[in-house]
Amino acid sequence: MNVPSRKIRLIMELRQNGVSATPVLAAIERVPRDVFVSAPFSDQAYENTALPIGCGQTISQPLVVGLMTQALDLNDRHKVLEIGTGSGYQTAVLARLCRRVYTIERHGPLLREAEARLTALGLHRTVVTREGDGGRGWPEQAPFERILVTAAALDIPKVLVAQLAIGGVMVLPVGKESGAQEVVRVRRTAEDALVTESLFPVRFVPLVDGLPPRDAPGA
Ligand code: SAH
Q1: Helix H or strand E segment including 116
Q2: Is residue 13 part of a domain?
Q3: What confidence tens digit (pLDDT) does each residue in 11-22 have?
Q4: CA-to-CA distance for 215 and 53, rounded, in angstroms?
Q5: Which of 83, 72, 56 is nearest to 24 (CA)?
Q6: Which atom of ligand 1 sits closest to the CA of residue 134?
């Protein structure tokens, strides 16, 4: 099966499983996922599955990318903070739907690969990257209308809530690495008021404190 047919099959699978927002489906259709996976896995790029990207991390399953992006309810005026750049795939999907994405990754080698891909796709003017601990957010750029965390936190991080605009929305997986995790949507309805709802079960790598001791080149 060629790439366009695989892509159509994937988009249909996402629709059948709850991704109904046309702009989200269009953004996923426009982002070439094969660019974000490494050579041994390129034949699986349009399968609805997570794949290894190095440094012990994974590119998220397309259905999860679709559902989480849809849950953010983005528009082209939004400034978005993303924690966990990984391959940059989710970043690219966000970049098609909002004004600017600020994205943080703790593994330098992953971030540099993601930057190269985003530049090759012409998204470098929409995306600003940082190597660091996303648990601290990006205080210089706060507040954000939307925050997306793509690694599982044990609880809703207070530091990130403080960087969410009033009326803003954060979507994140919550739960232990080995236990049940769910995607939670948090709305900051007032200075001190949050409304949270559980959306669906999921399985993510953990949100890890601090920076790795030392990234092996090309790891
Ligand atoms: N959205 C990514 C999936 C990334 S997997 C994609 O589409 O490819 C989760 C990523 O979060 C990993 O790359 C991991 O290194 C990163 N991560 C985990 N804890 C982090 C932290 N505290 N700060 C920044 N990045 C973190």
Answers
A1: helix 108-120
A2: yes
A3: 999 999 999 999
A4: 14
A5: 72
A6: 23
Q: Which residue is closest in CA terms to ligand 1's atom 23?
A: 134
Between the CA of residue 53 and those of 34, 50, 67, 88, what are the distances in Å? 12, 9, 21, 10
- 151 touches 205 (CB < 8 A): yes
Q: Do 173 and 182 meet the contact criterion of CB atoms below 8 Å apart?
A: yes
Instruction: Give me the CATH number covering residue 112.
Output: 3.40.50.150
Instruction: Over range 185-207, report the average pLDDT.
Output: 96
Looking at the structure of the chain, the number of domains it has is 1
Token pair listed for 44: 């699986």
Q: Structural domain of residue 79, as residue ranges?
A: 3-202
Task: With respect to residue 76, please indicate whether it lies within any of the assigned structural domains.
Answer: yes
Q: Is residue 213 part of a domain?
A: no
Pocket test residue of 207, 209, 215 for ligand 1, highest count of atoms within 8 A of CB: 207
